[in-house]
Amino acid sequence: MQLISYISSQCSIAKTAIANTVELLQEDCTVPFIARYRKERTGNLDEVEIGLIVQLKEQFEALEKRKQTILKAIEEQEKLSPELLKKITETTSLSSLEDLYLPFKKKRKTKAETARNNGLEPLAKQLMAQRNNHVESLAGGFVKGAISSTEQALEGARHIIAEWINERSDVREVVRTELSRFSGIATKVIAKQKDDENAQKYKDYFDWSEPLKRIPSHRMLALMRAEKEGYLRVKIALDDDRLLEKLDRKIIRGNNEAGAEVQLAIDDAYKRLLLPSLSTEAIKLAKEKADEAAILVFAKNLKQLLLGAPLGEKRILAIDPGFRTGCKVVCLNEQGALLYNTTIFPHPPQKNSAEAGYTIEHLVKKFEIAAIAIGNGTASRETERLVRGLKLPKEVEIFVVSEAGASIYSASKIARDEFPDHDVTVRGAVSIGRRLADPLAELVKIEAKSIGVGQYQHDVDQSNLQKSLDSVVAHCVNKVGVNINTASASLLSYVSGIGPKLAENIVNYRTENGAFLNRTAIKKVPRLGGKAFEQSAGFLRIKNGTNPLDNSAVHPERYALVKQMAKDLGTDVKNLIGNSSLLKQLKLSSYVTESYGLPTLQDIVKELEKPGLDPREKAKAFSFSDDIKTIEDLKAGMVLPGIVNNITNFGCFVDIGIKESGLVHVSNLANTFVQDINEHVQLHQTVQVKVLEVDLGRKRIQLSMNFQ
Length: 708
Hints:
five-stranded mixed β-barrel; alpha/beta; five-stranded mixed sheet; 29 helices; Arc Repressor Mutant, subunit A; Tex N-terminal region-like
């Protein structure tokens, strides 16, 4: 099968695994379901490998679709030879395919087309043969009509030859290879924009050049943004003489006057047609490569953020800090429901700190608060100092929580539907509190691009970015599992096999009929058929239901197997769950069948040992340095506690408790070469950093983690 061969040629996955995975995908199975519950079919592929198969499958299908369009277009011109058909059918590269199609593309009026209309193609053919040493005499026979001189005739013939050269796939491949291996990318500042205030952020690139194949993704995206904003001109730099010499050797066959005309045509083809077209292609490919790297960074950050440590089901008092408009305070119950809200004014201009402190102490006692969440925006440090100075029960923990994207959520339709009787300030404070309880459940309500992690997210291909981020969110949701009786429609929509419409149907059914008592009851949801149940059931949890397995990742299709295991051990399923000593007595090899093997059986036993175990760590309280309030307080040499709040390819940003985050450049991250930053730091990791340099003018802080 062509599809399987294509995928196999692009990766190192076994053909059998690819074929079985493709078959499952064509049966509308989701990536999380395949990775978790069909390990025997795929040879135990993980989600990344299955995702790669999905990507390559889409590439192949797009290539095949383009082939059919091209074949149809050439057939209509009655120019499809058996040789050309074979070349088009066998090509596995989109760029090679387009090269093959180039001679048959409908063109706008070109110099070559004008020359053909003037009857100069026979002259071009004779020159291209490179056997004539008297071109003036040869061209004289074509001086008629619109052609008034032999030079005009020769020039027109060269235009036709230049087009032939440009359309040769072997010539284009030579230029393409040269560009990929030896070209540089160079920039020049646009003179009239040089002193523009906004242009200064690109000052380092006003006169910049480096090899195109080595440019890091963040710099490529910065250059593309600067060009788009009108501050720089970006172009490809290449050794033209060296490349022209290669083309001459490839095309020129005669040391005569005709050969000299062809050489002129080669120069023209290169400068006017080949280089502009393929330089644009090279920059496009470099941009796509930069996009891939940036999207990968964003995806890694998002995954870490979504799998951030949850506090769990506890009563939380959340504060959205502010100065002039005050601090919005909300109290939430264990399930995140809003119990109470008010506003306090501890900071200037009101300065009612005593009253504000009393209010917080009173609310903590009244609603039996277990933790306090403080947003990390404006007035965060001042609010944190106020709260830490209060007489609170020692078991009440205090957390500073990222507000990134909270304002987006509070103004969204989701927030309005959840809290129709409250304004955006209340919704924002609720979001801060819920993020502490369960970052994943709350952050899925916000468009991933608004969460504030990653690099140049607005400059990359938005369709590819969205696809990648949706995949990450789905991975995280299905990795953790979802309580179907408490989850929002936003969270449920990412469960394998569910989607937005079914998620709404689940919530509506739950509202009308009460909590689901077992997984079987899920089938009663309107439009949730057998396939959706198969794909989703293992990822949906039901706590305290009629079947203890419903609060585990064991799929209902394996309940009978677990029941048999319990029977073989002389007990029931309820007593088997969590009983490590009993589970160790199981001889798994005796349960292997054609449907499931050891990987699935090992997963089942692991889940039975700790059913419904949340793979995330628990949230831990953290405090910034009390000595640092603004950037002006920083001095080189200071060592401070901080939290990693963003990771890029060139380093990580660390929140040290002030408005500006500091940068730990990759060179200051460790005392060894750093290949992958994510191997050294994680998002929301608490770290110790040393201040290297403070630029008050540009409000930049250089930090180091390599100082001990």
